[in-house]
Specification:
405 residues, alpha/beta, nine-stranded mixed beta sheet, 16% helix
């Protein structure tokens, strides 16, 4: 992993301001930070796990047996995914939750999502326990599926004195741990709201989700605003999980900080990109899909690498427009937002993006294919407009071939 270099540090709520990252100047459409500054918040220590490694969790542990059997019978597993939701300054998070609930309600039984995989930043700006009621449980009170998660940088951010009094008893990730790594998973998450959702008992802040048709390895990229940071203990675990993944199933890697992003606020994390692709090369195991949040829009890239004496294409999706109030814009090229597909460099193509709407990604996984359908709509204060499918793609598991519908 490369050494930390200079990088401008963005800030969030209160007196913080956002600064665009320093990016490579020889690229018309930069997608990774070239340099960075030491983070405003230092690397946050990881909490004790909920049990022993290798930190795996099975879908059958919480899904109703009849629903689990239906997945096997129909040969299809569906789930929702998006990140960056719980922003108490607005109700855009409720809007997206409504869109996902509407999508689930409109589907036949064999196409309903089995779960929602949250890509981090569940509650802004410091993952406070007292904000979970209104900004998680109330938000998803009507959403019918279970919710699992990896943490984002704001889920583990310490209190910032620029925002007001600092709670001396606050610990990194305390809200996320209480609600996603609970010791009492049958406990109601919120008593003050109308939600009947219970807490989850995930095994760790980084963990592997075993399902009938996909292995989802979730990483924790810590507190940095513009760069993720993953240490050796987690990298070693990640490589072992890559090698242990069932080669007959879809392999998906989830990490909050994206390896690539063409936005002007965050950019992609070169540190995360290095951890991911060095690990893929070292193990010889490449995923079918990488999912990230952090950047507050939707982007889909394909990244081509040389491996096993041939080319492998890895789709990298950014889905961070799940409710954070301010959507992120992309770099312009010659004064205009890019047309797609756009070749960012010899290895990377921006296939599709949406910087103007809030939305979610719906994934259908079978024994042979991953199908991704991204839906979004312009935000309205009341009611739910009809969503529009703004991206549709498929990934053939055997060949890793990616097609845009």
């Amino acid at each position: 992993m490369s050494k930390f270099k200079f990088f401008t540090q963005g800030r969030g709520h209160g007196k913080r301001s956002v600064h665009a990252p320093v990016v490579a100047t020889d690229e018309k459409f930069p997608t990774q930070a070239a340099t960075f500054q030491d983070p405003h918040f230092p690397f946050q220590p990881l909490p004790p796990p909920n049990g022993q490694p290798p930190f795996r969790y099975n879908l059958s542990e919480f899904l109703d047996p009849a629903d689990f059997k239906l997945i096997h019978t129909t040969g299809t597993m569906v789930f929702h995914t998006v990140g960056d939701t719980g922003d108490y300054r607005g109700r855009e998070q409720d809007f997206v939750a409504g869109l996902m609930t509407q999508d689930s309600d409109q589907q036949p039984a064999n196409k309903k999502p089995a779960f929602f995989y949250h890509l981090g930043d569940v509650v802004y700006f410091a993952g406070d326990i007292d904000k979970y009621g209104d900004n998680f449980y109330e938000t998803y009170k009507d959403y019918p599926a279970f919710i699992v998660s990896i943490p984002g940088n704001h889920d583990c951010q310490p209190d910032d004195p620029q925002d007001g009094p600092v709670d001396p008893n606050k610990k990194p990730l305390d809200g996320w741990i209480q609600n996603f790594m609970s010791k009492t998973p049958t406990k109601m998450g919120s008593l003050k709201t109308a939600s009947n959702r219970t807490q989850m008992d995930l095994p760790n802040v980084y963990w592997t989700f075993n399902t009938p048709f996909a292995t989802i390895i979730g990483l924790f990229s810590n507190v940095g605003e513009n760069q993720g940071e993953i240490h050796k203990d987690q990298i070693d675990w990640f490589r072992e999980e890559l090698k242990a993944a069932d080669p007959s199933l879809a392999l998906i890697v989830a990490v909050h900080h994206p390896p690539f992003s063409g936005d002007v606020e965050h950019s992609g994390s070169s540190e995360v990109g290095t951890v991911l692709f060095d690990s893929f090369k070292a193990t010889g195991v490449y995923p079918h899909l990488i999912l990230s949040g952090h950047v507050h829009n939707y982007q889909r890239f394909t990244y081509t690498v040389s491996a096993h004496k041939h080319k492998i294409t890895v789709p990298c999706v950014v889905a961070g427009n799940g409710g954070y109030t301010n959507l992120g814009k992309l770099h312009k090229i010659d004064g205009k937002y890019p047309s797609v597909p756009l070749r960012a460099n010899d290895s990377l193509v921006l296939e599709q993006y949406d910087q103007d709407n809030f939305g979610f990604l719906r994934l259908e996984v079978t024994k042979s294919t991953i199908t991704g359908s991204y839906y979004s709509a312009p935000y309205v204060v009341s009611g739910l407009p009809a969503v529009e499918m703004r991206d549709n793609f498929s990934i053939e598991l055997a060949t890793k071939a990616v097609k845009t519908a």
